[in-house]
Amino acid sequence: MSDEKMKILQVYRSEPTSDIETLVGILNRDRDADEFKLYFDQPNYDVLVQKIYAADKTVCWW
Description:
The chain is an alpha/beta fold and 62 residues long. Helices cover 34% and strands 27% of the residues. The chain has a three-stranded parallel β-sheet, sandwiched between helices. α1 links the parallel β1 (7-12) and β2 (32-37). The chain is flat, with a radius of gyration of 12 Å. The chain starts with 6 loop residues before the first strand and ends with a strand.
């Protein structure tokens, strides 16, 4: 069995509420977590695609 942690990417369309932050904390537990925020002015979609391919699992939050 591998010691490598699952990689998870959290993608936010809007600024997360406290409830979302709680859920993200639960999902990120014992995982190698990364995030991408779409609600900034000019998100770099090339970086987003790279992060999606690097992750084992991607979760999108609206």
